[in-house]
Amino acid sequence: MQRSYTQKLKTKTKAKDANDKQSLTGKTDEGGKLSQIISASDSQRKNIKKNTKSNKYRRGSCSGSFADEDESFNRNILESIADGAFTVNHKFEITSFNRAAENITGFSREEAIGMKCYNVFRANICKSHCALKKSIETGRDIFNQKVIIMDIDGDDVEILVSTSVLRNRDHRVVGGVETFRDVSSTGSLRKKISEKYSFQNIVSKNYKIQKIFSTLPYIAKSDSNVLLEGETGSGKELFARAIHTLSERKGAFVALNCGALPDTLLESELFGYKKGAFTGAAKDKPGRFSLAENGTIFLDEIGDISPAFQLNLLRVLQEKEFEPLGGTATIQTNARIIAATNKNLKEQVEKGLFRNDLYFRLNIIHIALPPFCERREDIPLLVQHFIDKFRKTKKKDIQSICPSVLNILMQYDFPGNVRELENVIEHCFVMCQNSVIDLECLPEELVASVSKTMAEGDDSVQVNPLSNAEASTIWAALHRFDGHRRKTAAHLGIEKTTLWRKMKKYEINYPVKK
User: Fold this and answer.
1) What secondary structure letter does DSSP report for 441?
2) Of the candidates 370, 364, 244, 227, which has an alpha carbon nearest to the alpha carbon of residue 303?
C-alpha cells in the first residue's frame, strides 16, 4: 500500500475535537496514564510525572505507581513490550500509538495519529463488532479477542486484542485504549520448531541435544546395542524411538519397563511362555523379544533388574538366543537392544550392584541426556510445542502463554524434567478459558515454589505491575536473541551493565546458546 493512502486519510480527518484531545492528553488518569506515557513528548512526560506522583497506575486488575521509577526507563519498557497499544477519542481518532503498534501494522506514529482507527487496522470486526466501541459503550473490558487486521502492505495479520475505556478525573468516558498482540508469529515459531529445532518429535535448541541429533542417523544405521542415560522424564524413550524410526528395520518397536516387574514376571514378559508353564498358562504366549523380531526392543530402567536376572539377559546379548518359560527349544532373536536407565551404571558396577560384563555389552554406544534444568533455552520452544499438541487433542483454541507465565516457568527447576513441563501445560489447558494462558492457570504449587525461591534470595524483588512488565520484557528479549547480552541490551535501549544488574535483580538466569 502506498504512503499517499495515509496522507489522504489524514487530510480527511485532520480537524479533530480539541476538547477530546485535551481530555486525553491532559486530564486522563487510571488507564489514561498509559496513553500519556506512550504519546507524550519529553517535556510533556516531565509534567505528567509531576502530576501523577499521588496517583496509581492501573490496567485491568493491576495497580502500582510510577512515582518512584525512572521516567526514561518507563518509556523504554513501554516502547519495548511486544504488545501494540493505542488510544482513541470519541470520534475513534487515534491519539497515541506505541512502537510495537508501528511494527505490527507498518504505520508510523506520525501517520497513525489523527486517523480513524478503522482506517489503520481495517479489521474484520471494525464495522460490525468493534471491541473498542463495545468497551466505550458498555464500560466493560474485553480481553484476548482474536482479530484479523490488514497491515500497510495489505497483508493479513492475526492479532489478539484487549480493550478498555479511558475516563478523566470526573470519571467521564473520553475515549478508549486497545492493546494487541501479533499471534501470526506463532505460525513462524511452529515452522521454526519443525524445521530447525525438531528431530523425530524431539524439540530442542540445546547444543548438547543438537549434537546428539547429528549422531542419531549414524547410530540408526548400525545394529549395535545402545545405552541411554538420563533423569526420569528427560525423554529417553523418544530418543530410542527416533533411532528405530531412522533405521531400516522392518519390525516393531517394543518397549518394557524392567524396573516395575519381579524376576519371574519379567522373564515371562521378555521371553514368553509355553502352555502349562504355570497355573493359568492356558496357551502359548510370545515374549517381547519375539514381538520385536526384525525390530527394536527398548528396555527401560535396566539398572533396576536383579543380579540374578542380569545373568539371563547377558546370555541373550551374547548368544542372540533365549528359551521361553516352560519351553525346551531355543529361539533365535535379531532384535536390536536399546537400554535406558536413570542411574549411573558405571557407578553401579563399581558398587557391585550391576554386572560388569553386562554393562559393557549394553554400553557399545552411550548417549547421556542432559537434565532439563540445563536446557532452559528449550522452555519457550517446548511450551509452544505442547500448546500445539494439546490444542488438537483438547479441542481448545489456546494460542500462547503470556510473558509473566513464561517468566515463572523459566525460573522453575522442573525436577520432573520435560514430562513435568508437559503436565503443567496440560493443566493450564484444563484451567484456561481464554486464548492465552495467564498466571491463574498455573498449578498453585509451582507458583508457590518459584515465589519461595525468589523470597529466599538475597535481593528479593517486591512484585508490582511495572517490575513484572520489566522482567517479562527482559525475558522476551533474551529469548529473542538466544541469551546474547549485548544484542538484548541494544534492543532494550539500555547498557549491557544495566541489563546485567536488572537480570540479577529479578534473578534471571537465561543461558547463552552456544
Assistant:
1) G
2) 227
